[in-house]
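TICKET #2291
ISSUE: user wants both folds in one file
ATTACHMENT 1:
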Amino acid sequence: MRTLKLHFPDKALPTLDTFLKQTKEARVFRRAQAVREVVKGQRLQTVSDTLHFTYSALRKWVHRFASQGTHGLVDRPRPGRPPKVTSALAHHLERLVDQDPLQHGASHSQWSCQELAAVLARQTGVRLSRESVRDVLKKKI
């Protein structure tokens, strides 16, 4: 197995330590932990065996860290349709929930997901299913 011929700057370890304290995503945290061990001098094979990464995946993350810094450890945007529910739409929905449904023409004094979806569609033009409304409200809790 070839040796890794990368040289890391002196500030690489403190940078990774700070990044580990700040990151919230478990996948990114594991990557940073593994890269930190390699930067400290551990062999790729040892770290990949210990932390249950494939050798090629760990090698990729180490090279990305060497060329891009901590930005290289974060997931890249994935392809596909962008989410229909933007943060602005979710915020609008959360404000709507705090209002009286009767003021918006609802037939009951408590919101249903179906009524929230209908009012949201009238106000914003974005049609959501009652399940999508429910998911947004569930994430709020």
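ATTACHMENT 2:
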Amino acid sequence: MDMKRLIGISASCYLFIVSALAAQTVRGDAKRGGELFQKMKCVSCHAVRGTGGSVGPALGAKPGTHDSANAVAAAMWSHAVKMWEAMEKAGMAQPKISQQQAADLVAYIAGKVRPDPPGDAARGRKVYEAKLCASCHDQYSGAPEFTRLTEAVSPYWMVAGLWDHGRGMLSRIVERKAAWQELTAQEVGDILAYLNTRK
């Protein structure tokens, strides 16, 4: 084997390993998540395993409901508008959440985090377009551009983005006379799989 080919194979292996490591998401800590759940006043509306308020849906109550990162991200996304309305009515400031904090909240809510099945990029592209994501993020609209991402994305990235840019997303959707789009856990996984082909 000549040296150029050897160098090429080595470089390919290196890039594969780096990409695999980049795709790994942060690890959540349930204890920190529980403390954050109290600090952010999520407990005022939501109960986790019987402890907390009853204004919003109970979390972590049923196996298979809020027990994976994609499932929690989908639930937050789908109920975001109702959460924001309830927070505004109660005079609560909307918090910003980092990816690490999102992972900690998932660990607390899920109890034991179930691994999500792999997403399908082809399906994800269709969902990404059908749910209006492309109409804002693939062309200049003031929204973050997703045509080429510089990092691997995860459900925690999605949750952090929801709390950081969600109000802006909602205002753009209202301007277009469209409805806030709900997502399933599978759709979250598929969208993320598609976005990760853009790195």
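RESOLUTION: both attachments delivered.
EXTRA DETAIL ON ATTACHMENT 2: The chain has a mean pLDDT of 85.
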